[in-house]
Amino acid sequence: MEKPALEVQLQTLPDSPGVYQYYDKNGKILYVGKAKNLKKRVTSYFTKRHDSHRIGVMVKKIREIKHIVVASETDALLLENNLIKKHQPRFNVMLKDDKTYPWICIKNERFPRVFPTRRLIKDGSEYYGPFTSFKTVNTLLDLIKGLYKLRTCNYDLAEDKIENGKYKVCLEYHLGNCEGPCEGKQAEEEYNRNIEAIRQIVKGNFKDSLQQFRNQMKLHAENMEFEDAQRIKEKIHVLENYQSKSTIINPKITNVDVFSITSDEGYGYVNFLQISHGAIIRSHTIEMKKKLDESDQELLELAITEIRQRFNSNSKEIYLPFNIEFAEDVKVTVPQLGDKKKIVELSLRNAKYYRQERFKQMKIVDPDRHVNRIMAQMKEDLRLNEEPRHIECFDNSNIQGTNPVAACVVFKNGKPSKKDYRKFNIKTVEGPNDFASMEEVVFRRYRRLLNEGEDLPQLIIVDGGKGQLSSGVKALETLGLRGKIAIIGIAKRLEEIFYPDDTIPLYLDKKTESLKIIQQLRNEAHRFGITFHRNKRSKVALNTELESITGIGEKTVVELLKQFRSVKRIKEASLENLSEVVGASKARILYEHYHKE
Description:
The protein is α+β, with helices and mostly antiparallel strands. The chain is built from 20 helices and 19 strands.
């Protein structure tokens, strides 16, 4: 499929947070921006009048829109920062400098310091973040400082230097903010336990710290040290109320290519994320046509080679959702949990969004291909011999056996054909018998089509389980149509699909379009049948004892019920009240009918 026009791209953008990129006719990047809702934000550029001359000029140059979907607005903010610094787009003014968002550093040293920084130095230190503002960092560091006593000096606390008494404790020790490891007043093992607890806190895992503080609080309370117990309780309260954030960026993931794939019966969609120095610097998705019904593994192997060559990638490690055979000297990793797994999931989410957008674009610019794809998918999913271009669905409607009716709705090429809908009054069945009713309407429907020489459907769907399906099959047998038309039943509870002579139902993926069309058919048949049933019931309800009174017609009954709401109130009404509604003569008839005594 050719690159869609700008108008089509705008119509098919997702309502998700993410980063968008504008390109000119030469494929040069013009602008990178973030959005809480990609569709609303990007569309606003083309629908609003811009006061800024710079933005107006940029909009005129836009020829293509690309985007990366992320989990939250915070992730979009951070990703925008990385992409602007990488590509330096002409129309971006902010974030082009070498400053980045702040991180929390646990320094690689004996008795590690914990401090904020904007610079990532590759010295083995641990970096957590990035955070969207220093306010968040300072809040977290204040929390840590209130929970644990850590050194703030930059001394080299080597073991021999401490033993030789090179350092003296500073004011922080006397203020109670530090335990004095510089003079050997705090054991390294105890300090490192605190550092490990801090690691868990900045990752958002407070379980161990909370348990440790609860044990301390309990111990203080048992020893009647209630002020200390209260101090620990306040720390617990602070921890419980702090909510950690998660980001899509991890400084330990560096110089890695990430690939994922989603596919349908005709195409595979492969997403590529390039990670450099702990940040996403590129996202690209390609559409691959299946020629020989290739598997996802085969398509992914082809795509990885093509994409890495296109972008000159020399990464020595790739992350994938499953293992493949890869000839190059590259380490293949299939993450099972943690940040690496999240990156693969983010890639897969972008591949799925791309597929959805292509479907929407196809529906707009090439509706025939869209219909052909859906029909081919339904044929495969439902194990049919031919594409179900013409589908009919039946539903019974009755309440406690009263006014039994049935409905038949018709879909052609996956769309409702309302002129072909039919409704049936059940004629041969007395009482609430769904099975017999289904057999009657299926028989009547196709006997008529045969008699009139009309086209028969490729697929019949009956709303119900094995019983209703058996009734439909019996009707087709009577007409000599069994085996000539595919027939299935769908049970509401678990969306089970039943086939004739097969005790095991079929379960379709809840997200597949085949199931969505079947559900749409079932719901439409139910709506159409219920509407017919209600109308019939209403007409019967009007035929009350009022109409049996000589001289009182249907219009008079409607006026009376509209005013008095029930037959009981009409019986109790005075002659004067009745006269106000229906006139003196009819009021006299009604009044005398109910007051003969």
